[in-house]
């Protein structure tokens, strides 16, 4: 199986999709229980939401599912949110805290090491190469990490999640102008709610690559799935009308970021 899909563009903006993949190798699929095989924690249809919004944008999309290994987790297994419920590098449960593996079939340390080398590392090697290529063209690169999640998950957070969840690790991963432009576009989206550095402050991808002092800026967008899905339960179908409305502010965000690139410090 191809581990990732890559489209090279000439824009200073790069879109990363670590969680839209649904491919699971047969030997791993056999170890998932019925709950795990729902693949409920997929970032459903996010690549479709962003498709065509910004001409010449570079995209890097993992095709493997996060239950194989989570491409947005620290390879050392360090928690993104110490003290809070979350899922790990190779999840043992879904976002509701329910087991996803058959009894006795949970991944071993050897399994995790194999998946790090053969799934996680190749995806990030491709993403890192694109960041360097784009930076060589423009002097800067803006990595926009694309995500979505169900709007109601008591195991992970209280209440209903806002539609737009912007994460910059409290301003550490990008220039202030990028954070401001993104959040202003979210706030201007009529009928949608938004928050900056709330429950989701940026995952490992954003925190690992976002080093503004080197000319690499990173920001995470976590979309509540109620903003674009018909339902947040199987079959997780895209609501075309909702999606069309959501694409308007998303396009505004990407256009703002691309325009900002030429103004950023080199």
Features:
15% strand, 266 residues, Aminopeptidase, alpha/beta, 7 strands, seven-stranded mixed sheet, 6 helices
Overall description:
With 266 residues, the protein is an alpha/beta fold. It has a single domain, classed as 3-Layer(aba) Sandwich (Aminopeptidase), CATH 3.40.630.40. It is built from six helices and seven strands. It has helices at residues 26-29, 46-50, 109-138, 176-187, 204-209, 240-261; strands spanning 4-7, 13-17, 58-62, 141-149, 164-167, 194-196, 216-224. It has a seven-stranded mixed β-sheet, with helices on both faces. Strand 5 (164-167), helix 4 (176-187) and strand 6 form a beta-alpha-beta unit. Helix 4 runs antiparallel to helix 6 (240-261). The longest helix has 30 residues, at 109-138. It starts with a strand and ends in a 5-residue tail after the last helix.
What do we call the CATH homologous superfamily? Zn-dependent exopeptidases
- Structurally, the number of domains stands at 1
Q: Tell me, what's the shape?
A: globular
What fold name stands as the CATH topology?
Answer: Aminopeptidase
Instruction: Provide the structure class.
Output: alpha/beta
- Could you name the ranges where pLDDT drops below 50 across 5 or more consecutive residues? none
Count of individual beta strands = 7
State the separation between the terminal residues, measured CA to CA.
39 Å
What is the CATH architecture descriptor? 3-Layer(aba) Sandwich
Helix content: 25-40%
Largest sheet: 7 strands, mixed
Order of helices and strands: EEHHEHEEHEHEH
Spatial strand order of the main sheet = 1-3-2-4-7-5-6
Radius of gyration over all CA atoms, rounded: 18 Å
Subunit arrangement of the protein: single chain
Mean pLDDT score: 96
CATH class: Alpha Beta
Count of helices? 6
* Fraction in beta strands: 5-15%
Keywords: Hydrolase
Pfam family, one: FGase
Protein name: N-formylglutamate deformylase
EC number: 3.5.1.68
């Amino acid at each position: 199986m191809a581990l990732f899909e890559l489209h090279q563009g000439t824009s200073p903006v790069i879109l990363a999709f670590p969680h839209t993949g649904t491919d699971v190798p047969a030997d791993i699929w056999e170890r998932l229980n019925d709950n795990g095989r729902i693949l409920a924690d997929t970032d459903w249809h996010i690549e479709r939401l962003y498709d065509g919004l910004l001409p010449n944008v570079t995209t890097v999309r993992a095709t493997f599912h996060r239950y194989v290994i989570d491409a947005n987790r620290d390879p050392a297994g360090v928690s993104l949110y110490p003290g809070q419920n979350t899922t790990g590098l190779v999840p043992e449960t879904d976002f509701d805290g329910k087991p996803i593996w058959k009894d006795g079939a949970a991944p071993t340390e050897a399994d995790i090491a194999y998946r790090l080398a053969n799934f996680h590392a190749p995806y990030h090697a491709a993403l890192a190469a694109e960041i360097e290529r784009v930076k060589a063209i423009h002097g800067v690169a803006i990595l926009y990490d694309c995500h979505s999640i169900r709007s109601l998950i008591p195991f992970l957070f209280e209440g209903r999640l806002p539609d737009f969840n912007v994460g910059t690790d409290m301003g550490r991963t990008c220039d202030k102008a990028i954070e401001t432009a993104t959040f202003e576009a979210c706030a201007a989206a009529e009928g949608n709610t938004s928050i900056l550095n709330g429950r989701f402050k940026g995952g490992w991808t954003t925190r690992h690559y976002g080093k503004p002092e080197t000319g690499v800026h990173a920001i995470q967008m976590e979309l509540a799935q109620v903003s674009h899905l018909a339902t947040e339960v199987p079959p997780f179908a895209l609501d075309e009308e909702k999606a069309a409305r959501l694409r308007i502010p998303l396009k505004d965000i990407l256009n703002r970021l691309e325009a900002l690139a030429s103004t950023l410090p080199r």
